[in-house]
Amino acid sequence: MAESFNRREPRSGNGLTALLGDTPSRVFIRLVLLSLLVGFMMAIFGVSPEDLLRGIQRMVSGLFDDGFAAFRQVAAYILTGAVIVVPIWIVLRILAMGKKR
Fold first, then answer.
1. Residues 67 and 82 in one domain
2. In this structure, are 54 and 39 located in the same domain?
């Protein structure tokens, strides 16, 4: 019940207002003011939209490159460990079979 008091309900029942969460004009004004604030902060720190897009591109590219390298490294660890583990397991299984007889 308390949640319904804290949550803002759209003023009218149309679909666009329900989708946006408020009237289109209020949402537009909020977005313009927020964009102005963020743009001002980006200018203060010397960040441009191109820098952001290039950074995102480098991040995604790095994730793919490093991610696949990590999978290769994990596969190499598994194979290296299997060289020791599998023969020991085979010997132990053979010895266990001998005890059952």
1. yes
2. no
